[in-house]
Amino acid sequence: MGARPPSHRAERGAGPGDGAPEEAGEGRGRGALFLHVRIRRRRGGEGGLPELMAVLGRFTPVAQALPPCAAVARVDGALRLFGLGPADLARRLRLQAAAWYGLDTAVGIGPSWTVAATASSRTGPDGVRHVRPEDVEDFLGPLPVGELYGIRRTQAEELGRLGVETIGQLAALPPATALRILGRQARPLQERARGGDRRAVVPGRATETVGVRADFAEDTLDGPRARATALRLAAELGARLRSRHQAARSVTVVVRTADRRELSRTRTLPAPSPHTDDLREAVYGILDGFGLQRARMRRIGLVADAVDDTQAHTQLTLDRAREARLRVEPVIDALNARYGPGTIGPAAAFAA
C-alpha cells in the first residue's frame, strides 16, 4: 500500500505473473464499453477526484470527471491493450486507486453511460458490477423508475401516479403516451430506460473544479437547518475560490438522501463570480428546484466549475447592501485566514 505510483506510461498487457484474465475477450467487438467509477471514501480525508482521474488516465485517455466524486470512461480499446476482461480491468483500477491514493471506489461496467452509472450504485462486495449487453433489460427493468439515471423526482412521481413504477414499464410505454407525460424528455428517458445513452465521454481534468460538502449527523429535512448549511458551504466555496484567484462559472448542488439516492443539478451563473452572494443565490435556486419537501437529506455538496478570476467582472449596482457585503469580503477572508475557517461568516449560516 505504500508503493510509489509508477510513471504514467501504458502497461502493455498482463505481466508473466498475472495469470490468465478472468474474463478475457469479454466485450470485444460488441461496441462501446463504459466504466462509471464512484469514490465511496478516501483514507485520511475528503476529495480524491483529481487522483481518480490520474488513475483512469493510465487505462484510457477517454475519461470525464463528474464532480464531486465520480468519473466515467470509455474502455473498449483498453481491453485489447491490457489483455483483460472488463471486470478484471475494473479490479485493477480499484487496486491502484486504493494502493496509491487511499481511494475506496465502486465501479460499474456497461454498454452505455446510463447502465454503467446505475451498476456502480449496485456493486457487490468486491466493488465491481458488470452488466453485459444481453443482461441490460433484466438489470434495469425491475428497478424503481425513480432510479433511472437522469430522471427528475417530479417526473418519477408523475409516472408513479399513472402506474408506471419500474424502469421496464417506462421502456415499454408507447412513445406517444410517454410524450404526453414527460414532454420533450420522453425520448431520451425512454432510450435510457432501454439501456441506451447518446452522451459522449468528453475528456477533461478534474483540477478545474472546487468543491465543498457537509454530512449531517442525522437525516435532515429541507428547512432552516439545511438552508443554513447550504449558506455556510456557499461562503466556504467563495472563500476557496477567492484564495485561489478563481471564479465560479457554474455551480452544481449534489444532495444525498436517506435512501442513498443522489440528486444533482447545475446552474450557470450570469457571469463568472467568486462572491458568496452570487453563489448563495444559485445554490438556493437549485435547492428550490429539487422540490425536496419532506425528503430526508444526509449530505449536501457544492461544486464550482472554476475559471481564472481575470474572467470575472464585478458589475456595480445600486444595491447598497450588496455593495457593502462585497467590500467586506476581503476583511472576512483575512480574519478567517488568521483565526481559522468559519470564524466569521453570514449570520444565518451559524444556525447549521
Describe this structure in words.
Helix content is 37%, strand content 22%. It has twelve helices and nine strands. Helix 1 crosses helix 3 and helix 10 packs antiparallel against helix 11. With 352 residues, the chain is an alpha+beta fold. Strand 4, helix 4 and strand 5 form a beta-alpha-beta unit. The protein is globular, with a radius of gyration of 22 Å. The two termini are 38 Å apart.
Distance between the termini: 38 Å
Count up the helices: 12
Total count of strands:
9
Low-confidence stretches: 1-29
Based on CA atoms alone, the radius of gyration comes out at 22 Å
Question: Mind sketching the topology for me?
Answer:
Elements: E1 34-42, H1 49-57, E2 63-66, E3 70-74, H2 76-82, H3 86-101, E4 103-110, H4 113-120, E5 128-130, H5 136-140, H6 153-161, H7 167-172, H8 175-182, H9 186-193, E6 209-221, H10 224-243, E7 246-257, E8 262-273, H11 276-290, E9 296-308, H12 320-339
Parallel strand pairs: 4-5
Antiparallel strand pairs: 1-3, 1-4, 2-3, 6-9, 7-8, 7-9
